Amino acid sequence: MNIHEYQARELFAKFNVATQPGSVAFTPEEAEQVAAKLGGKLVIKAQIHAGGRGKGTFKNGFKGGVHLCDTPAEAKDIAAKMLGQVLVTHQTGPEGKEVAKVFVGQAVDISSELYFAILLDRATSAPVVIASTEGGVDIEAVAENSPEKMIRVPVNPSLGLMPYQTRAIAAQLGLKGKLMTQASKLFTNLYKLFLESDCSMVEVNPLVVTATGDLLALDAKFNFDDNALYRQPDVVAMRDTTEEDPREVEASKFGLNYIGLDGNIACLVNGAGLAMATMDIIQYAGGTPANFLDVGGGATKDQVFQAFGIILGDKNVKGILVNIFGGIMDCDIIANGIVEAAREIGLSIPLVVRLEGNNVEAGKKTLADSGLALISGDDILDAAQKIVAEVGKAA
Ligand code: ADP
Ligand code: MG
Q1: What is the pTM assigned to this prediction?
Q2: Nearest ligand for residue 104 CA
């Protein structure tokens, strides 16, 4: 799960991470009011679940999702150009994201921009700090062209980020004296935030040294581990479903793991590993998957029904492959869910079903007796080849 920058700032406050004053605005008038309260030079930032806003462009031609200005009237004017408009950045894809709120903050006199992030390193199964003196809007290019400028410090999860490490990172970032003290504290607090909020990533880019010699976190991008959300009610309260794929939001309501993709063969599978294998085998058979969908190890008839609804809500879907291994699950329950869904929805595209495992004979019988035009797959490859062939025929 992701949150907006203005929400990440609430976590900054809770964990004593220094940042610039400011708050969120939903209308140009609110932006003007916030600006008037703040006084001085201002920054207006589009709030979307994607980075690269500074270098982004709105579909209406307005350039940049981050703007500096001097007066509340200008703040209002800039907010009016952003709100309700679609911002395209290198992270949003060409479709972009509609801006429904802006952050109005105090502009900071920046002396240098650094990069600081903590993420989970899958290779070591432990947190790792990534830092760089070359922070700012071109960090991707730095990582690509000058990887030696990216500092990597692995963290031992049972020890946490140690004080000697925070000082070493600060030193490598060229921070001395008061700045080193501030940096050590800030890194320690960010690590605490990362750990206690069950983040999979906290990224501060830029972390700035101000003209007055202070350290401030000016931008924040956080990701959270979805599997830990059950114990993070404050984080869940920040969820903004308007930023997510509507199909994924719908699926999550029914406890389904769904990720929309660009292909035309939908798959309905139980278990993430089998779902991955099914997507692979569709590709192997010459097709392209329309989604990843894991109904879970113990899916109910109702979940299967809902899953069909979500799959068929995607206009690109030209065929469905159901691939179920009945381990915990009873194949007949799945078969009943399929038949009920296919009847109610009036399925008009090819459907190939491969069932294996617990109570498979009863499941196959339910499908065969249904009178529906289902195609049975003998094994996973046979099923994939059949659905690819059917979709090919229809096209
Ligand atoms: P993004 O990463 O989405 O482009 P940032 O918040 O990092 O958005 O802003 C982009 C750039 O805008 C920063 O690298 C910094 O140079 C500038 N900037 C951001 N916030 C401020 C601020 N409060 N004062 C001055 N400049 C800012
Ligand atoms: Mg940034």
Answers
A1: 0.83
A2: 1
